[in-house]
Amino acid sequence: MIQMDPIQLRLLKEVADLHDVPEGAYNFRANGGLAGRKTTEHIDITSKPEGSGIDIRIKDGTVNESVHIPVVLSESGMKETVYNDFYIGENCDVLIVAGCGIDNCGKQDAEHDGIHRFFVGKHSKVRYVEKHYGSGDGTGKRILNPVTEVYMEEDSTMEMEMVQIKGVDSTERTTLAELKAGAKLVVRERLMTHGEQNALSVYKVSLNGENSSADVVSRSVARDTSFQKFDACIIGNAACQGHTECDSIIMDRGRILAVPSLEANHVDAALVHEAAIGKIAGDQIIKLMTLGLTEAEAEEQIINGFLK
Amino acid sequence: MLELQNITFSAAGEGGKVDIIRDISLTIEDHRYTVITGPNGGGKSTLAKLIAGIEKPISGRILWNGEDITDKSITERAKLGIGFAFQQPVRFKGLTVLDLLRIAAGKTLNTSQACEYLSKVGLCAKDYINREVNASLSGGELKRIEIATVLARNVQLAVFDEPEAGIDLWSFQNLIQVFQEMQAADHSRSILIISHQERILNIADEIIVLSDGRVKAQGTRDEIMPQLSGTDAAVTACEMLQ
Question: What is the DSSP string of chain B?
C-alpha cells in the first residue's frame, strides 16, 4: 500500500519514471517515513534500526528482477541522512532504480543525504539508475549529497546512470569503487545546473584486480551563474584498463572545473583521461535555425541531445 | 520567386574591408534549376548564405515572392520555405540522424518515413537512423545526411552549397536524380546549387557565373556552357576525383 500526496507522486514520476506501483521489489520513502514496501521471493528489504535506512538482499542467481527505492521530500526544513546497503549475490542480473525528488515551497532548506553501499557478488550484473530532481518556488534550498560506494567481486559488472537535470540547488556527489579481477564498472553521469546552483561530483575508482576496467563519463551543462566541479580519479593497482571523460557545455556566466586524474601503480595499468569544455558552436545553432527553429529552440535541442 | 536587388557584402580582411559581393542583382524564377558557378573566392558561398539569412548584406534588398526579407532572420526565412544545405555540415554530439530529420520535417516522423529520405541519398537507413551526427561519421556520410535534412523539409527554394564535395564514392547520377525528383515533386519549387561540377551544370535550366563578387555571365545552359568548357567553373568528375 502506497500513501502519497499529489506532489509526492509528481516527484516520484520525475525520479523513477513511475506512474504506478512498479513490478518487483520496492521501498518508497516519503518525508522520512516508509510509504510502501514490497519484497519478492528473491529480493528482501529490511529496515535498519531506528529508521536510518534499509538493507536490500538479493539472492544468488536472481535474474531479470528489479528493485525501486525512490525517496521524496515535500516538507520544507526536512533534513535526513539515510544509509542503504545492497547485498547482491552471485550470478545475478538485476536493475536497481533509486532517486530523490525534493519539492521545497518553504523558507527552510530541505536536504537528503543518501549513502548507498553496493556489494556486488561474483559474476553478477547490476544496472543502477539514480535520478535527482528538485522543484518548488520557496527560498529554502534543495540539497542532495549522495555517497555511493561500490565493492565489486570477481567478474562482476555494474552500469551506473546518474542523472541530475533540474532544480537541485546544491549537490556533493561522491562515488567510490573498488574492483576485483575481471570486474567492470561503467558510469554515465548527466548533469545540468542553472541559476546559482553548485554541483560537485567526485569519483575515486580503484582497479585492484587483474583485467578489471572502468569507464567513467560525465556530460554536463552549466547555465546562468552555476558552478560545477568534476573530479574523477582512476587508480590502477593491477593490469587493468581505465578511462574517464568529462565533456561540458558552458553557457551564460556558468563556471566549470574539470579535474580528471590518473594514478598508475602497476606497469600494465592502461589509463586514459579526457576533458573538454566549450560553448555551443554557433554553426550548430545556425544549422538548426535553417531547419526552422528559433535560436532558443535550437539551443534547447542541442542541450537535450547532449544530455540524452 | 527570389529577387536580389543591388546586393553588396563585405567582410573584414587583411588591410581593411574586402568586398565579397559587389552590387549583384538577379532573379530566380519559380520551378527553375539554377546553378551558380565560378572560380573559388568569387563569392558563391557568400551569396548562398545571404539568401539563407546567415549573412546580412550591407546594402541592397532581397525579395521572396514579392516580400522584402532582407531583415528577416534565418528562422523566418526557413519558415517561409527557404532551405539551405551547408558546404561543410555541422556535427552534433548527442543528436541522432533521426532527431535531425524530425527537426527538419517539423513533425514527428516515424522511422520508415525518415528512412525514405536516407535511402534517397544513398544511405542504408537502418545503419544510420539512430547514429549520432558526431565525429564518428565521415565527411561523405555527413554530406548525404545534410542533403537528407533539406529533402525532409517542404521547401520552395532549396539552396545547396557544393553538394557534390566529399561524396565521390556515391554516383553523381544519384545526386542529380535527387535534385530532379525534388523539383518534379512540386511545380513551384526551385533548386539553387553552388557547384563546379560539369554534370550538375549540364542539367541546369540556368547558369550564373560569379567572379570577383560580380555576375560575369547569366543565361541558359546552352548559352553559358560553351563559355565554361575547360575553365575552373566546369570541372569534370574525373578531375574532381584526382
Answer: -EEEEEEEEEEEETTEEEEEEEEEEEEE-TT-EEEEE-STTSSHHHHHHHHHTSS--SEEEEEETTEE-TT--HHHHHHTTEEEE-SSPPP-SS-BHHHHHHHHHTSPPPHHHHHHHHHHTT--HHHHTTSBSSTTS-HHHHHHHHHHHHHTS--SEEEEESTTTT-TTS-HHHHHHHHHHHHHT-TT-EEEEE--BHHHHTT-SEEEEEETTEEEEEEEHHHHHHHHTTSTTSB-HHHHH-
